[in-house]
Amino acid sequence: MEPDFTLDDEGLHDALRALIDAKRTPGTPHGDPGAVLVLPDDWPDAGIGGRAALASLADTALVRPTRLDHPGFFAHMDPPTPWMTWAAAQWAAAMNQNLLHPDSAPAARQLERVVVGWLAPAFGMGGGHLVPGSTVANLTALWAARELTGARRVVASVVSHLGVEKSARILGLDYVPIPVDADQRLRVDLLPDDLGDAIVVLTAGTTATGAVDPLDAASGAAWRHVDAAWAGPLRLSSHAHVLDGIDRADSVAVSAHKWLYQPKESAIVLFADAARAHAAISMGGGYLAAPNIGLLGSHGAAALPLAATLLAWGRDGVRARIDADMVLAQRLADRVAVEPALELFARPTTGVVAWRPRDADAAAVRDRMSDAWVSTTVINGQTWLRSVADNPFAEPDRVVDAVLAAAATQSDTTL
């Protein structure tokens, strides 16, 4: 018998204990990009065994990473994950189901359909399927749109996610960027008059500022797609009205590994008419018992951690957690607004706060921060700090204090 393919109780318990110990130990709000891995340069000829291999990787996996649950982490669109997803992801890895074949993953295929069915109505969509991320979700939606409408152009705001232009290039479609207004929303008045051959992509939560395009725009387009990678889960919160009009789209992309707190890689592509869209992007083969839908071939049980979260929290729990994050964003904006040394780009509408010191270089200040962390973004050619509210442990005052201290230090060194 091959021992590495059987149950190693002690090895699994050791690995779980290492995870528990790491999560109980305070980390840092950002990793060390200059850290050197303590691993051999060359792949060894002789293996060291499973337990030793995990022990040698524990520091890389559990100690050095950025702690997304640190109270000073108010930075990227990368949340900490709930504990039940860790277990569900481990189950999925252990069983290694392949949703490509009904006979190899009948329960997992059904689970994905159920989870999509739970979420799709919030967006006014009829169905869809899971993909590894919203770049793939956007590409899938645009592929279906091209097949069904014969569209030749993709029209989107100039601040749309880079994955939108990337998808257009892959699909051989012209990409037409449209300017944005002072709030970083697509200028509807600058859309082409004739959109009959265009897929219009509307963004619900831009990467830099969280801005939401007018989601009822471009009614004459051949296809309307909403990239709701970031702000989509607001439809499950008390702030659902922020995305009014999303239900009139032909397709929607949502990242579950952002504001639904899932492990990478988890996203959903949704269609108003899922049967028609899926038929347009399906292929068969002699070895397949069912059509292969979308871009992915082999596809694991990605719905399992998401199902665990949705069941654990219910509708009320999901709503409460997103609402709480929105409160954190407002608290941060409130504090920035009253600090004379700081500037707020705009009041946050989807949990993203862009802000900066008035008299110091934002990037340099970020690099000087201690025990707290923010990201940076470029808006109209200028660098701003960016804080994304998806860490329930984030402490706004702690982050602002760290920025003020770093800005003061920079001012002292330039005297």
Description:
The structure is a single chain. With 415 residues, the chain is an alpha/beta fold. The chain contains eleven helices and 13 strands. Strands 1-7-6-5-4-2-3 form a seven-stranded mixed β-sheet, sandwiched between helices. Strands 10-11-13-12 form a four-stranded antiparallel β-sheet, covered by helices on one side. The chain has a two-stranded antiparallel ribbon with strand order 8-9. Helix 3 packs antiparallel against helix 9 and helix 4 (106-119) packs parallel to helix 9. The longest helix is centred in the last third of the chain and has 36 residues, at 303-338.
Silhouette: globular
Taking the sheet with the most strands, its summary is: 7 strands, mixed
Strand proportion, as a percent range, falls in 5-15%
Low-pLDDT segments, ≥5 res: none
- Strand arrangement within the widest β-sheet reads 1-7-6-5-4-2-3
| Mean of residue pLDDT values | 95
Q: Which class best fits the helix and strand makeup?
A: alpha/beta
| Number of E-type strands | 13
Helicity, in percent? 25-40%
What would you call the quaternary organization? single chain
Number of helices: 11
What is the radius of gyration computed over CA atoms, rounded to a whole number of angstroms?
A: 23 Å
- Gap between N and C termini, in Å? 71 Å
Order of helices and strands: HHHHEHEHEEEEHEHEEHEEHEEH
